[in-house]
Amino acid sequence: xxxxxxxxxxxxxxxxxxxxxxxxxxxxxxxxxxxxxxxxxxxxxxxxxxxxxxxxxxxxxxxxxxxxxxxxxxxxxxxxxxxxxxxxxxxxxxxxxxxxxxxx
Length: 104
Description:
Elements: H1 2-55, H2 59-103
Helix pairs in contact: 1-2
């Protein structure tokens, strides 16, 4: 009986390690793609700001575009934090689920 219990615990731990490894891989891939996309968006916005600043005489347009360029990273950062929080909550739920399965 003790052998079966140890075997079951080992099986659950292996499954949890495999699941956690996949989650870490997917999370790092998502974060990497998000950072790359963010850098490209910021670079394009900055280039657009420079072009508009060089071609316009209105300071109002320049100020609005500068505000947009500043707000984009802030909004993007908040969205990333929200996604990371969702992943964290989902992972905690999965851990609790695995623990409840192993206790049965």
